[in-house]
Structures are given as C-alpha cells and as structure tokens.
C-alpha cells in the first residue's frame, strides 16, 4: 500500500510537471493536440466507411499504416544502443541519454500498436490477437510472435525506468540487482522485436521481394541508424529547453553509432541491389518496378531514388570526421538519414512487395487524405506521450522533484 501511495504521488507530481512550461512548450503541445484531433476525425471517417476510405485495396493490402509500423519498430529497438554502453560497457557519457532513449522506445511502441489497430480497421478487431480469447496460433504464427515481442518490450521499457524513477523520487539509490537483469534482457529483446518483424515479412514465400536472408540484418542496421539519429535531435531540443544537461561528448559518441550503422545499411543495400538487378529473374519484378517502373507505371521511382540520395549524402557527412563534429552538419545528416530510412521502410519495402499482383496486374498505391490524417494523428500522439514522459521524468532524474512524506 505504501508503494502504491508513492506511485500515485509520483503520477500526480509528474502530471503537474508536464502541465508547466513556457509559451513555446504550450504552443508545441497545442499543435500536437490539434493534429491528434485531426487524426481522430479521420479515423472516425475510416470507422464509418471502412478501409475503403484509405488507398489500400485487395491488391495492395498494406500501406502507410504498416509502413510506419515497420519503421517505428526500429526506432523502438534503437534504445538498446544507449542501454548497452551505459549498463554493460559502463560508459558514463551515455547515461544521460538512456532515460530519453527509454522514453522514445515507449512512445514508438505505443505508436506501433496504434498503427496495427488502425490497420485492422478498428480496435474491436484486435480481440483475436489476445491469447486465451482469440485464435492466437502461437508458436506457429509469426504474427503471434510479433505480438509477444512488442508487448513484452513495451513492458520492459515501462517497468525498468519506472523502478529507477520511483527509487530516485524517494531519494534512494536504485538497486542494480533488481534492474540490471531487466536491462540485460532488454538488450536481447530489442534485437528480437526487429528480427521477428523482419521474419514476418521474409517468411511469406509468395512475396519474393521480401524473401531475403538479409532482411533481418538490414532491419537492425537501419534501426540503429534512424533511431539514434532521432535521439540526437531530441537530446539537443531537451538540452536547449530544459535544465537537463547533455554534453557534446554524448552526442558525438551516439553519432559514431549512427555512422557505423548507416555505413552497414548502405553496404547491405548495395548487396540487395546487386542480387536483384545484376541477373534479374521473375522474382526480381517487384524490384524492377520500384527502381525503373513497369508498363509506364512508376509512382515509387521518385521515392526510392530520393531515399538512396539522402542515405548516401547523410552517410558521407557522418563518415567525414570534420563534418560529423560540426553540430549543424550532424543535424543535417540525422534529418536526412531519418527521412531516408522512413521512405526505405515504407515506399521502398512494404508497397513494392505487393506490386505486381499474383496475376501480374500492376495496381499502384497512393495514400488518401484520410490515411495521411490518421498517420499524422498517431505520430502526434507519439510525440505528445514522449514530451509528457520526458517533462515528468527530468525533474525526478535531476533531483528537483522528490516525494514529500506526509
């Protein structure tokens, strides 16, 4: 009962801290609220009209929702790149970034689950994914594995930071024997969530574009590039608008992680391109459509070349030490890399897997305004949750907010 009382007090104090801020902070939260309401309005239209309100159809049955889901699984997994050096390698320079990384992982996972929910058509259709109630089909179904690893990783990323914050809220030092096993588990679990998601696609032999042994490693490489890139940008904003001091050394070390991951991602991309285009077979037809178009239809061509161009430019900037150490160039590289991998995981991976269809028909896909509105709303919700988590956690982490024993 005592711990419950402390937890309730922590929640109250956290909510109170999250509602206090300067004018810029309140404008930011108001903008996010507006886009969340817009997303809710668009989702209401989708509930009323069904998935026909989106650009998806019986030929391209996964679109913007699953594209964002796939990308955000990688963003969630990226937290391990901060946890690993902090707790396992005992690198203190990463310690300040861990709390932010964990908050980003929680926000990304909530967005993942939201995108799956809207892709199903509505929350009422998710009942069959609940073990013991629906037909879960575990361990045969890769989708069942995906449900387990995503929810398990969300549980880990909620409970470990909560225990650490609860301890600091009471003025105590967190017991490493309690949270370190969970930290070690999260390292392996983070790899698992992206590998299982990759296996979900690679295990579909009728979709040869996804049927690649490199898909899992490429997922990890792109995740460990895009996720930390977003963390670098978030840390700078937090450092500027809060009392949470983030050293340049921390950002530079994270940028090294991004650099290596981006280089590996490009090497794997080149390997995939060689396999698909050097000696193309019938199974390469989706790749041919993606890069060159087929029968005069080439909607995805500008997307993929834009992604590759941004990927190459960002990797070159990161590889050159002089440019990477310059914060302005580092920020440019992080933004380009984040956008490039977002396109790569959506328009460059999910969509072309359905084109052409089983009978060779080329039905192109473009998201509707309803689909875009729901997507923007989910992203706004994720940033809203992330902002609240950070705003609540920083005063506790810095010792400014403590439990008042009554």
What does this structure look like?
By secondary structure, the protein is mainly alpha-helical. It has one domain (2-397). The chain is built from 14 helices and no strands. It is globular and about 70 Å long. It comes from Splendidivirga corallicola. The chain crosses the membrane at residues 27-47, 62-85, 97-122, 142-166, 178-204, 219-238, 250-270, 300-320, 332-355, 367-390. This is Polysulfide reductase NrfD. It holds the Pfam family NrfD.
N-to-C CA distance: 15 Å
Q: SSE order in H/E notation? A: HHHHHHHHHHHHHH
Mean pLDDT: 84
Poorly predicted regions: none
| Coarse structural class | mainly alpha
Helix count equals 14
Strand percentage, roughly? Answer: under 5%
Largest sheet: none
Instruction: Please bin the fraction of helical residues.
Output: 55-70%
Write down how many β-strands occur, each being a DSSP E stretch of 2 or more residues. Answer: 0
Overall spatial form: globular
């Amino acid at each position: 009962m005592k711990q419950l009382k402390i937890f309730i007090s922590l929640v109250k104090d956290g909510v109170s801290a999250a509602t206090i801020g300067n004018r810029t902070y309140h404008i930011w939260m108001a903008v996010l609220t507006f886009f969340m309401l817009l997303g809710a309005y668009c989702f209401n239209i989708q509930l009323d009209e069904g998935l026909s309100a989106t650009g998806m159809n019986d030929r391209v049955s996964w679109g913007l929702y699953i594209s964002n889901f796939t990308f955000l699984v990688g963003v969630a997994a990226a937290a391990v790149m901060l946890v690993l050096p902090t707790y396992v390698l005992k690198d203190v320079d990463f310690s300040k970034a861990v709390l932010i990384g964990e908050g980003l992982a929680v926000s990304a996972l909530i967005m993942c689950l939201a995108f799956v929910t809207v892709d199903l058509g509505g929350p009422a259709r998710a009942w069959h994914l609940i073990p013991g109630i629906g037909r879960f089909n575990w361990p045969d179904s890769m989708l069942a594995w995906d449900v387990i690893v995503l929810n398990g990783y969300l549980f880990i990323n909620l409970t470990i930071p909560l225990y650490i914050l609860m301890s600091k809220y009471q003025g105590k030092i967190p017991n490493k024997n309690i949270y370190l096993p969970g930290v070690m588990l999260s390292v392996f679990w983070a790899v698992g969530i992206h590998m299982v998601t990759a296996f979900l696609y690679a295990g579909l032999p009728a979709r040869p574009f996804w049927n690649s042994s490199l898909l899992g490693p490429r997922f990890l490489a792109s995740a460990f590039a895009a996720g930390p890139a977003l963390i670098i940008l978030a840390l700078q904003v937090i450092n500027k608008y809060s009392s949470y001091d983030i050293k340049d050394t921390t950002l530079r070390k994270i940028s090294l992680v991004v650099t290596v991951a981006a280089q590996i991602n490009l090497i794997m991309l080149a390997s995939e391109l060689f396999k698909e285009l050097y000696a193309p077979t019938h199974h390469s037809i989706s790749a041919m459509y993606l890069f060159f178009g087929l029968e005069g239809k080439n909607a995805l061509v500008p997307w993929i070349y834009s992604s590759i161009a941004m990927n190459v430019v960002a990797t070159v900037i990161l590889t050159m030490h002089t440019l990477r150490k310059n914060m302005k160039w580092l920020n440019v590289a992080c933004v380009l890399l984040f956008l490039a991998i977002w396109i790569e995981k959506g328009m460059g991976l999910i969509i072309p897997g359905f084109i052409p269809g089983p009978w060779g028909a080329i039905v192109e896909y473009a998201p509707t305004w309803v689909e875009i509105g729901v997507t923007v709303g989910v992203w706004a919700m994720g940033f809203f949750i992330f902002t609240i988590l950070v705003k609540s956690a920083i005063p506790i982490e810095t010792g400014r907010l403590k439990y008042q024993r009554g």
